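chain below, 401 aa
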Amino acid sequence: MKKILMSMLIGLSFVFNACGGDDKDEPVPPVVKQPQRTVLAYIVADNSLSSFAYDDVDEMLEGMKSVDTDINNLLVYVDDNATPVLFRLKKGKDGLVEKEILREYEEQQSTNPQVMKEVCRKAYTDYPAKSYGLIYWSHGEGWKPMPLTSSTRWIGQDKSGGETDYTNIDELKEVLTIVPHLDFLLFDACFMMSVETAYALRDEADYIIASPTEIPGPGAPYDTMVPAMFKQGNTAVDIAQAYYNTYEALYNDGKGNSDSHWTAGVSIGVLKTSALSALAQATGNALSNAIDIELSALKGEIFDYDQRPQSSSSRIGYYDMAQIIQALTTGTDRTNWEKAYSDAMVYYQTTSKNYSSYSGMFSMEGTCGLSHYLPTGNTSLNAAYAQTEWYTAASLASWGW
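prediction:
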């Protein structure tokens, strides 16, 4: 009986050991990496900037060499003088970065909000991630209305089909409401670091990265900036530092300057949008006790990022906001405002001079990086300004603006 029982135990032991051996032979499932960040570069270059579009794409290809494309997505939409295309930059089996075409489009106006919504839906829906960024690449004009009779501001210019179209800021805001909340919104366009524009978009992104004046012809240096876009940490400031450091290293007071070798400097800032409501309140409080000064005299004291001639019909006036408050306020009002400003403007750097296509090299001494409008003799422009959210939030009507 004991022999029979022992035989049975030995048999069972063999069966269990055999099963265990099968488990060891099963293939180990691959580790699935969770996507960390998706960034869409939206390039609207069907205009005078068309020659720069694929130069920047080449820089992006270079920048992605040091990025893990298994967990990070850089999608690029380009509309230049050819038909628009959406592609993803990824590494192939050979480790080289390549363009994976996702969709080719018929000719379209890429400034149209419905077109932009379609591109954004595909990009952010097909490539979900833990966090998101957006680059808007084109011409820019801050909060300026286009057309002037409307109450909207614009970014982007599309000249397809013989007609010129723009993305107004309220249209951009509408587009951004259908995409995931952005870690950062980078404007690779002129004059976009204006408080009026930033306030309108405050709910759509944690940080806005932009320049208060004209940007260099070659635009953002994507070969150094792209790796910063996919770093963890203080991403927006890292992006701006990479942008600035590249141009600062080339800076030579504009001597020998060209689009292929930009030596004329740059200015770039980062605005924390969650601090903008407090900045609006502090601005209203400060101006409620402001020094009485004629507007023309005030303008004479304040730095203007807009270097277009006073006689130019396209001139807006992008005045340094911090200098405005410093000229109009004293004591506690100024101190409280400066605290609110430092909480909002978390990064700003500029070379000692910048370049304007209208005036050449000009000094940036004393600038703080965020522009603010001051009323002009253009009643249509002033009326449009009174329709901005910032105008209401900062109680500018009480100051007579």
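DSSP finds 13 helices and 15 strands in the chain. Confidence is low (pLDDT under 50) at residues 1-23, 149-153.
thats it, cya
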